[in-house]
Amino acid sequence: MKIAVMSCIHGNYAALDAVLLDIDKHGCEKIFCLGDLVGYGPFPNAVVAQIRSLDIPTVAGCWDEDIVEGLNSCECSFPSLLAEKRGKIAHEWTNKEIHPENREYLATLPHTRKQDNLAFVHGSPHSNHEYLLPELNGFIALERVLATGADVLFCGHTHIPYIRNLNAGQLQVRVFGEDGKEVQNQFRGGIKKIINVGSVGEPRHGRPNATYVIYDTDSQIVTLREVEYDYQKTCAAIIEKGLPAIFAWRLARGIEFAERADDPTHVCTR
Question: Of 197, 160, 201, which Cα lies nearest the Cα of 63?
Fold first, then answer.
């Protein structure tokens, strides 16, 4: 069976529409979404409504959580005061824009989904705000997959797609009880895989094209899809809606942009 997995749509309806058409062309039998339906982009309600209407199994992203909980779940890593201010503007705009029924839907999204030996999360099994980067320590990466009980872990959040194979390994935990006796637990894992599906609505791999993944559960073949669409339409809407213009600039270039010089010691206090 071929499944499609996508993430990080961020209110970019034009990108979502293009990806759904591409998925249909490739005959995928099921679609999974890894969250961040809203945030940054100009059409949060249209995106949520489309996901709901198609009944796509979806997990909560960090932006979805923040809209529901009012930034209470924030573990943000904004690199500067300016970047944090822009993020807050986007949050407040989205919070006012989102329809009640769509907010209620976001509140129902689980942190993790599973199907057979596949697990689906936004950031990591431990936190929607944790970045599973391709250079992550192998021991930690393996633990993240084993924590789900799956063989293949699909994630997003970084907006940069990659595939990482983890060779067979063993984790050992040693615990000393109150009586001073040592208890050992061992966890052995075969070959595991982390698949980051990138971003539909705000790519950061150097091009504005939307990305998602097709996974064949029988052959275990992973295909990264990169879909062109009229990103300028979304860029124009960002400006028209009064969102920070830098969001349009970085979308058009497929990169992350954040100033780092204004306050290098800044730590988010939310």
Answer: 201
**34-43 burial: b if 16+ Cβ within 10 Å, else e:** bbbbbbbbbb
Mean pLDDT calculated for residue range 97-113 = 97
Any idea which architecture 2-118+198-253 has in CATH? Answer: 4-Layer Sandwich (3.60)
Strand order in the sheet with 30-33: 30-33, 2-6, 210-216, 222-227
Q: What is the pLDDT of residues 160-192, one digit of tens each?
A: 999 999 875 555 555 565 666 666 655 555 679
For strands 152-155 and 118-120, give the pairing: parallel
Residue 80 predicted with pLDDT over 70: no
Query: For the chain, where are the alpha helices, taking DSSP H only?
Result: 13-25, 44-53, 62-69, 81-97, 100-108, 138-146, 231-240, 245-253
Better-predicted residue by pLDDT, 95 or 173: 95
Sequence-ordered list of residues with C-beta below 8 angstroms from that of 62, at least 6 positions apart, any chain: 35, 36, 73, 75, 122, 123, 128, 129, 157
